[in-house]
């Protein structure tokens, strides 16, 4: 979403069933409302569904993969605009998987969301479990794992220029101000990538962009 040649690309790995991702999705839509028209920031959304069984055989987010595939299908069937409309609507209506709502969103709701935003429901439904949708999500998931992502949301600010030491100092001071653990943010040695774990507040994301 935004200018593909933006000097700042925010690449986010996310899971629609994740409560922190739900919060951060709203944050990112606010960020893009502010920056999309400036051409300075682009948001790249990638799926990383947390649906692998743990040591006890428990699955954290059992519907996350199908939800992720449904986002891809909104784009396959309706194009980029419908992709982002569907993504936003899905995050708005999906109950975060918590103790009070352990089942999350009923998968039967996915085509209803598609209908609500004007997609062809038949084409959408045929797409959701198709090889194209499955492989798109797997590819994004693998890229996240290869990048060291272990939880969602995890985001990477990919910059076209290296940040300077003053900016690094600013970011560290901002972490202290917002009482955010320092290890949730990491700057690569070349200063061109900032990795960020968790649902950072709007002010923190804006501060990094402005700095």
Strand content: 5-15%
| Biggest sheet details | 5 strands, mixed
Radius of gyration: 17 Å
Widest beta sheet: strand line-up: 2-1-3-5-4
The total count of helices amounts to 8
Helix and strand composition category: alpha+beta
What sequence of helices (H) and strands (E) makes up the elements? EHEHHHHHEHEEH
| Percent in helix | 40-55%
* Low confidence ranges: none
> Which overall shape is indicated by the principal axes computed on the Cα atoms?
globular
Counting DSSP E segments of at least 2 residues, the number of strands comes to 5
Describe the SSE topology.
Layout: E1 8-14, H1 19-35, E2 41-47, H2 64-78, H3 80-93, H4 109-116, H5 121-128, H6 131-146, E3 154-159, H7 165-177, E4 185-187, E5 193-197, H8 202-210
Parallel strand pairs: 1-2
Antiparallel strand pairs: 1-3, 3-5, 4-5
Describe the structure.
- With 211 residues, the chain is an alpha+beta fold.
- It has eight helices and five strands.
- The chain has helices spanning 19-35, 64-78, 80-93, 109-116, 121-128, 131-146, 165-177, 202-210; strands at residues 8-14, 41-47, 154-159, 185-187, 193-197.
- The chain has a five-stranded mixed beta sheet with strand order 2-1-3-5-4, sandwiched between helices.
- A hairpin with a 5-residue loop joins β4 (185-187) and β5.
- It is globular, with a radius of gyration of 17 Å.
- The model has no long low-confidence stretch (mean pLDDT 93).
């Amino acid at each position: 979403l935004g200018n593909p040649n933006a000097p700042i690309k925010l690449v986010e790995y996310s899971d629609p069933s994740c409560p922190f991702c739900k919060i951060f999705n709203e944050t990112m839509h606010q960020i893009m409302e502010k920056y999309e028209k400036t051409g300075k920031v682009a948001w790249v959304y990638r799926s990383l569904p947390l649906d692998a069984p743990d040591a006890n055989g428990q699955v954290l987010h059992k519907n996350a993969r199908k939800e992720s595939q449904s986002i891809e299908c909104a784009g396959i069937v309706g194009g980029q605009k419908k992709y982002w409309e569907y993504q936003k609507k899905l995050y708005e209506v999906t109950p975060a998987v918590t103790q009070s709502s352990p089942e999350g969103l009923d998968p039967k709701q996915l085509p209803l969301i598609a209908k609500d935003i004007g997609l062809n429901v038949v084409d959408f439904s045929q797409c959701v479990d198709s090889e194209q949708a499955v492989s798109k999500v797997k590819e994004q998931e693998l890229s996240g794992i290869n990048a060291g992502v272990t939880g969602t949301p995890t985001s990477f600010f990919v910059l076209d220029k290296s940040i300077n030491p003053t900016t690094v100092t600013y970011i560290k001071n901002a972490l202290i101000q917002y009482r955010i653990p320092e290890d949730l943010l990491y700057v690569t040695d070349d200063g061109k990538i900032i990795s960020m774990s968790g649902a950072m507040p709007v002010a923190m994301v804006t501060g990094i962009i402005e700095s």
